[in-house]
Amino acid sequence: MSKTLQIRGLRKVYEAQGRSVEALRDLTFSVEASELVCVVGPSGCGKTTLLRCIAGLLEPTAGEVLLQGDRVAGPPPDLAVVFQEYGRSLFPWMTVRGNVELPLRARRLARDRRDELVTGALAAVGLGDVHGAYPWQLSGGMQQRVAIARAVAYEPHVLLMDEPFAAVDAQTRAELEDLVRAVWRRTGVTIVFVTHDIDEAVYLGQRVLVLSSSPTVVQEDLAVDLPGDRDQLTTRSDPRFTQLRTHLYAQIQQAKRGGQPTPPASPEGLAASPGG
Amino acid sequence: MTGLARRVLLAAGLPLALLALWWVASADSQSFYLPPLSQILEAFASTWLGARLVDDVLPSLLRLLAGFAVATVAGVALGVAVGSSPRLRATLEPVLEFLRAIPPPVLVPIFILIAGIGTTMKVLVIVSGCLWPILLNTVEGVRARDEVLEDTCRVYGIRGRARLRHLVLRSSSPQIVTGMRQALSIGIILMVISEMFAASSGLGFTIIQFQRGFAIPEMWSGILLLGLLGVALSLAFRGFEDRVLGWYHGLRRAERGPS
Amino acid sequence: MRTGRRRWWQGAAGLAGFLLLLELIPRAGVVPDRYLPPTSRVAGALAGELGRPAFWAALGDTLAGWAIGLALAVGGGVALGLLLGSVPALRAATSSTIEFLRPIPSVALIPLAVLLFGTDLRSKLLLVVYASFWQVLIQVLHGVQDVDPVAMDTAHSYGLGRWARIRHVVWPTALPYAVTGFRLAAAVALVLAVTAELIIGSPGLGKEIAVAQTSGAVPAMYALVVVAGLLGVGVNLAARALERRVLAWHPSTRREAAA
């Protein structure tokens, strides 16, 4: 199976005023096509730095990011990002429709195709009836939906999401999580989802990568063997869910204490224990 | 009293009362310097609502508009260039701070030296005064653009002209419009000054001639006209601002939250 | 800080480059040097000016007019702003009048000033006070509007009279705005002071510049323009320094209300 995304030996050192800070030491993992991978880790472990390197917004000090075999050196055309600060990533002088359409216009798609994609994307996120509104007229959750619709209409191969629901209330977050899974299953896009919320990571992901604290390496690559059909009520009360999140929580605590385990050579899953 | 009637009364009340007071207080005026308002209004009608409108007022306004337009285009273009480059900004900052601190009227003699007393001089004077607020405000606006928006443009491949239009210009437009508003006030002042100082035609020239010839009611009517022009241009600009920055006002209202 | 020092060098280089350009352009014949004397000649004229007692007298006249006018404008603007802002009925009644009077260009008063006061200091003050007053008033009104209603209610419920409320609640909120208004007014005051000297002939730098221009002393004229510019820079820097000091201990996070 072709690996859509490969990160090899990624290293990022920030130089500022004579001091150097090693944000990422050595990150190596890969993501298969149409996988939904979540990335968690203690605060300050460089989750955002990692995402920016993958997106081509930041140049790594060493190592490389391969997107479908091609080296990433600058934002690639088939990759989209949903940022945490939805208010600042949408253009306030454009309507919802305008915002979703802009990347497609930059790509010089024909008008019919553009309309088709925009209408489809807005319908997919449930915003079909507010396409004429301005972003600041909408609630936070709806604004983030617009950002997601923009990414969906862009038809990327890889979608990166940088703690997109951190600034949204719990009720809305649950809806948006389900939305992400729905969009993912419909379009088959590969998703790398960065979050600090462990529950969210387990609920959403097929795999969860745990990053250590700075200088960062991949501490664990956990397979989430929950059923493919998930919903907020039943999945979260599944005993397996609780097991996984407890394990993750312990991992993060260890990462915070600065435990430096050697990065695993191959993804290891937690063997399902019989019973509960 | 209904809400609308109340608002109209509040808005028009004091101005009308002041006008009435002026009319009554000056009605019997024997003062040379302060003729009755009725006389001033008569002079207004006979002086300005005729050929002079086309001969003097219109050219003045056109010069103002021309100077303002040139200053806007140049100010925005230079402002984008300087604002986008931290190095350029740091290098040019002292020079720009000095040039903008020169009181614009002081440049009138210089421009007269270089360009005589014709239309070119007047337009140059207006440009020289209007340029700075627009340029400096554009630099501020371009400098302060949002990083998240910039990342968004990079990710979604919004480059070149589209990026210039959406990321740079549109997002700086609140600042640019502020600069334009300041420039308009300065432009009006310079338009009049350039004509008062040394000219052979124009609004400012005409008014000064009245004053020198002691045609007092006509002079007052000229002052009145200048006042009306100032107000009219200000209103026109506000209309322009509402159209261009409608989204910004809405955004600020939403940010301030329900109150 | 390293970056701070680097910027200093760049700025100095930019300034040096600018002066060099102005030296070379007239010498190379690109612009006739009787219109634009090279920097060295202007510098020489500047040195000459500095040795002339009449120059210093003129500088003093300009500064005096500026300072007195500014003081009057700030005093009046703050007082009226606080009064209007604190009494909602007054505010509502005068709002339209202010909006109407505000855009009237100060230059409209030039003929009147000449008529009433000639070239006296008072004609300069008329222009300076009129123009600067509005800057201060508008800012103070914005400041009063920014007062936290909860704080006002609290003060009211504690039995603080109107005057006490203004002192303890309104004034601290309005202070940063007043200081911004002062900064804007200071710049405008300088422009109008020089304008009055230029057009009306009141004693001061502007008059010296006009005299230099008519008598063909071109390098001296440019030297005086440079002085005017430096004066402007000085006024800007002093006003900004004052603003920083006042705002340093004032925990205000508001943005400047667009002037």
Q: Helix tally of chain A?
A: 9
Oligomer: heterotrimer
| Chain-averaged pLDDT of chain A | 86
Strand-and-helix sequence of chain C, N→C? HHHHHHHHHH
CATH class wording of chain C: Mainly Alpha
- Which percent range describes the beta-strand content of chain A? 15-25%
| Poorly predicted runs of chain A | 262-276
- What class do helices, strands and sheet pairing of chain C give? mainly alpha
Distance between the ends of chain C: 33 Å
The total strand number of chain A stands at: 10
Protein traits:
heterotrimer, B: 259 residues, mainly alpha, MetI-like fold, 84% helix, C: 259 residues, 0% strand
In short:
Chain A has 276 residues and is of the alpha/beta class. Chain A is built from nine helices and ten strands. Chain A folds into two domains: 1-78 and 156-266, P-loop containing nucleotide triphosphate hydrolases (Rossmann fold, 3-Layer(aba) Sandwich), CATH 3.40.50.300; 87-155, no CATH class.
Describe this structure in words.
Chain A has nine helices and ten strands. Chain A is of the alpha/beta class. Chain A has two domains: about 190 residues, P-loop containing nucleotide triphosphate hydrolases (Rossmann fold); about 70 residues, no CATH class. Chain A is globular and about 50 Å long. Chain B has a domain of about 140 residues: MetI-like (MetI-like fold, Orthogonal Bundle). Chain B is flat and about 75 Å long. Chain C is mostly helical. Chain C has a single domain, classed as MetI-like (MetI-like fold, Orthogonal Bundle), CATH 1.10.3720.10. Chain C is built from ten helices and no strands. Chains in contact: A-B, B-C. Chains A and B meet through strand 6 and helix 3 of A and helix 7, helix 8 and helix 11 of B.
List the helices and strands and how they pair.
The complex is a heterotrimer of chains A (276), B (259) and C (259).
Chain A (H helix, E strand, L loop, with lengths): L2 E14 L2 E14 L3 E5 L6 H8 L7 E6 L2 E2 L7 E4 L3 H4 L6 H11 L4 H14 L15 H14 L4 E5 L7 H18 L2 E5 L3 H7 L2 E5 L4 E8 L8 H6 L1 H18 L20
Helix pairs in contact in A: 3-4, 3-5, 4-5, 5-6, 7-9
Chain B lengths: L2 H24 L10 H12 L2 H34 L1 H16 L5 H9 L3 H25 L3 H9 L4 H38 L5 H10 L3 H29 L1 H11 L3
Helix pairs in contact in B: 2-10, 3-4, 3-6, 3-8, 4-6, 5-6, 6-8, 8-9, 8-10, 9-10
Chain C lengths: L1 H26 L11 H12 L2 H34 L1 H14 L8 H8 L3 H25 L3 H9 L4 H38 L5 H10 L3 H31 L11
Helix pairs in contact in C: 2-10, 3-4, 3-6, 3-8, 3-9, 5-6, 6-8, 7-8, 8-9, 8-10, 9-10
